[in-house]
Amino acid sequence: MSKKKTENVSVFALGGVGEIGKNMYVVELDDDIFVIDAGLMFPGDEMLGIDIVIPDITYLKENKDRVRAIFITHGHEDHIGGLSYVLRDLKHVPVYGTKLTLGLIELKLKEAGLLKEVDLRLIDAKTKLTIADHFITFFRVNHSIPDCVGVCIQTSQGAIVHTGDFKFDYTPVDGKQSDFNKLAAIGQRGVLCLLSDSTNAERPGQTGSESLVGAELNDVIYQAEGRVIVASFASNVHRLQQVFAAAEANDRKVAVVGRSMVNIVEVAQKLNYLRFKPKTLVELSQVNRLPDNKVVILTTGSQGEPMAALTRMARNAHKQVNIRLNDTVVIAATPIPGNEKSVSKTIDLLFRSGANVIYNQRKVHVSGHGSAEELKLMLNLVKPKYFLPIHGEYRMQMAHSKLAEQVGVKSNNIFIVEKGDVVEFTGRKARMSRKVPAGNVLIDGIGVGDVGNIVLRDRRLLSQDGVVLCVVTLNRKQKKLISGPELISRGFVYMRESEEMISEANRIVTKQIEKSLQAGSDWTELKSNIRERLSVYLYEQTKRRPMILPIIMEI
Amino acid sequence: MSKKKTENVSVFALGGVGEIGKNMYVVELDDDIFVIDAGLMFPGDEMLGIDIVIPDITYLKENKDRVRAIFITHGHEDHIGGLSYVLRDLKHVPVYGTKLTLGLIELKLKEAGLLKEVDLRLIDAKTKLTIADHFITFFRVNHSIPDCVGVCIQTSQGAIVHTGDFKFDYTPVDGKQSDFNKLAAIGQRGVLCLLSDSTNAERPGQTGSESLVGAELNDVIYQAEGRVIVASFASNVHRLQQVFAAAEANDRKVAVVGRSMVNIVEVAQKLNYLRFKPKTLVELSQVNRLPDNKVVILTTGSQGEPMAALTRMARNAHKQVNIRLNDTVVIAATPIPGNEKSVSKTIDLLFRSGANVIYNQRKVHVSGHGSAEELKLMLNLVKPKYFLPIHGEYRMQMAHSKLAEQVGVKSNNIFIVEKGDVVEFTGRKARMSRKVPAGNVLIDGIGVGDVGNIVLRDRRLLSQDGVVLCVVTLNRKQKKLISGPELISRGFVYMRESEEMISEANRIVTKQIEKSLQAGSDWTELKSNIRERLSVYLYEQTKRRPMILPIIMEI
């Protein structure tokens, strides 16, 4: 560890605070920038047509020569999903991750055609790095995917500790407990600031071990008379492991369905994070040749995503698997906020197809994030001087800050930051100083950031009451309407059933155009007259406000 | 009670099964039709631009002369909200409801300008009716609004019993317990078929009394240092009563905000279902003159509805009330499935404004629907031969049917119906016989049923990737392009940032048009050529599929 004068230390989030998703945190030590995670977020309902959302990395691009490393805490989408966009601008920056994490990152980068251009570096929980004179270590934490680490960056003012996503699982599926001793030692040496996962700060008590789910799955499979279909997040590798184990314990084969599930099972098996007998895994096409009570199908779709395998099975629209009487379907996940309705719909469809559906009534899911008692334990171990609750919506950060106060952190030393708020540590003091650019970059198709508020506003308008075109040809010199107005609508009303209204609208617009022409209106005026006249009339008639587009051709 | 030969008895739902909302059930006795409830449903996310959804009443319209009565079990939107549409076609049919229920119905009918044309008839839980020789009685049940009843229609085969929405509250806020004895007597006399509320069939145990909330509200208000703002469903009159009582107990005044809240408080107070001292209620404008610790504000917006009062306060966009430090905000409701995200957003905004927000961590809400044990008690009291679980999504109906089996109803005697499935009772047997028309009627603005699948599909397309217009003037005789193509887009991309792509698209379309003109294509062909060519090119460039509308003017 280098001894030198007090560094200037800054910490901020480019994503992951005030929201669940697109985690990205930055630690700046004098001239050196370290990034932790680069995730994506799935769009809210109001972001019509948007595929994914990533953090705004303007600050990193503007300071790209100072970015020394990107540390990835684990392989979930909200921590790695933004990498293939971020790295386009930061190809020279090495990305550090554990074996499984890098395996999953490679999948993404391959798809994006970036794999060969970037610098991936393998670490494990024991790795010690010195980068640009700064000393960085890691510690193991438990979560719903194996091979998770937290990050500890040493500074002259004490350590900056980032927990990653974590819970304290005393009986983890892979037998690898959290690094309690290391955390205690880090705390002992002195921690300037802790950044800790707030997801379950509102939940009292302890989250419970993933192993509880194993026993439950085992029991469900034991009791099932027919096939068992288990839906889970593909990235919840511990859950997948338990499904394989329960299948083997009950002498069943496992088939895997859904692109991400197939990919992750393949990577996790290859890297030895998923263990099962070679004959346990069978092709989906073989399943129909096995007796029903020898089959487990592991599938995507636990969130009722319209195109996911389980949803298609439930709709009877899957090519290879349809739900039938005597199937047992296990939804081994809880709905992410916003997905409740689509999950309910899927469950209803499954019941209608005759399946026995097991969802929130049995303990077939536990969270991967620690609850209040675990968060307090982390604070007790690490004993930070300053505290930033991260990874959560504002109210979760609030709840986490209250826990920290209970544990003894001074309330003035807790910063509930928003994206871009920089917390600066200058020797004795810490304060929220400046703000760096931060926000949502929307990705629609292959366009990065070319959809903004105006485009979204138009989509919203169009989605509510559709569009009405008013097409007119005219000769302005002669002040004469040559043809039209022709009204064309989409998403507004059934034209056929509204003929009367449309022909009246036509009459009104014709009159308006003739009037405007006589008055010598210019095009802009003419267009706005048409728009206004039509808008008022259609609203009177229907109480709807379609987008109105006047199209004027002059000859 | 008339003695006569075995009647033909049919029962079906026009709404309320396979869904939460728009309840409407029909009991048909030979030639006489009785309707129970006429509710609305709020649209799902996929119903873009739709305001509300009501049941398809084609069957009732086709048989309007046989409809003898509409019984309304209670005054919630999902039971009365469709009335002002349904009664347009059934003005001659008397509507029966209790005092508060009719009070709320009158509000709606007045708005719709229908109040003077319809026949509202007051009942209470003791009313006995003979309509067209059929004997009808009611029984009191507890729910989150006062004055709720269930309906018992006598037939020669035994009674048809409809519970309405219910729970068994042993300590109801208004002191009026459920009619246990009457239910037991009805069961004793013989019940052909029970239709019972399935909302909480998936929940084990007992729901708990509304009075629990009162104690909690009292404590929250007692401890608050500043203003207390309570958000609740306006229609949850018991909850409102408890807010008034807790305010009085703590020597505070109550101001009411939000149109529906103001309306319902007025009606409920006038009809004596809400009791408080005259001076307790103050105008909102007076609130700022009172010390903060003398104020309770009762508001709408517990579901994070964008335009509701609480949401506007949270956004700092309410004219009279803004949230400030030291305010305590109580969200005295749970999110209806689908509203989780908007409720979370509102809570976050409130925290950001400095309020202390009390939501699901304290018992400031209990459900108005009975859980598993209460549903079993109802089955035990009524002892029906046949059973229809109603009022719930399919999986709730499933869960309820399992409870009924546990209680001893034969599984063959349980019918999990979908909308329009008619269950016919013909002496010894019961069977699902025919199907009557049933479905969703969508209401957008003042249009009833003029938005259907095509319009919705267009709105969905428009909402995803917007619209691109391709405007062309041509002279087909001379096979000549006169002007254009001009490309105009809305909700697709920022035109300014995509100039290159647009001019290339222009070139491609021009070539296509010239080719088609040379080949002598007709308009339909020309349009479809433009659409296809443009669609392929824009998809290649953006991976988006905007709606493409070719507009061709011929001169």
Structure, briefly:
The structure is a homodimer of 555-residue chains. By secondary structure, chain A is of the alpha/beta class.
Largest interface: A-B, 63 and 63 residues
Count of extended strands of chain A: 26
Largest sheet of chain A: 8 strands, mixed
Strand content of chain A: 25-35%
Shape of chain A: globular
CATH architecture annotation name of the largest domain in chain A:
4-Layer Sandwich
The tally of structural domains of chain A comes to 3
**Contiguous helical run count of chain A:** 15
Alpha carbon gyration radius of chain A: 29 Å
Distance between the termini of chain A: 79 Å
Function (chains A, B): An RNase that has 5'-3' exonuclease and possibly endonuclease activity. Involved in maturation of rRNA and in some organisms also mRNA maturation and/or decay.
Binding site for Ca(2+) (chains A, B): 49, 51, 444
Binding site for substrate (chains A, B): 234-236, 365-369
InterPro entries (chains A, B): Metallo-B-lactamas, RibonucZ/Hydroxyglut_hydro, RMMBL, RNase_J, RNase_J_2, RNase_J_b_CASP, RNase_J_bac, RNase_J_C
Structural notes for this entry:
Chains A, B: It comes from Exiguobacterium chiriqhucha RW-2. Chains A, B: Keywords: Calcium, Cytoplasm, Endonuclease, Exonuclease, Hydrolase, Metal-binding, Nuclease, RNA-binding, rRNA processing, Zinc. Chains A, B: Its cofactor is Zn(2+); Ca(2+). Chains A, B: Substrate binds at residues 234-236, 365-369. Chain A is an alpha/beta fold and 555 residues long. The first copy, chain A, contains 15 helices and 26 strands. Chain A has an 8-stranded mixed beta sheet with strand order 7-6-5-3-2-1-20-21. The first copy, chain A, has a 6-stranded mixed beta sheet with strand order 8-9-10-11-12-19. In chain A, α4 packs across α8 (259-270) and α14 runs antiparallel to α15 (523-542). The longest helix of chain A is centred in the last third of the chain and has 20 residues, at 499-518. The radius of gyration of chain A is 29 Å and the shape is globular. The model of chain A has no long low-confidence stretch (mean pLDDT 91).
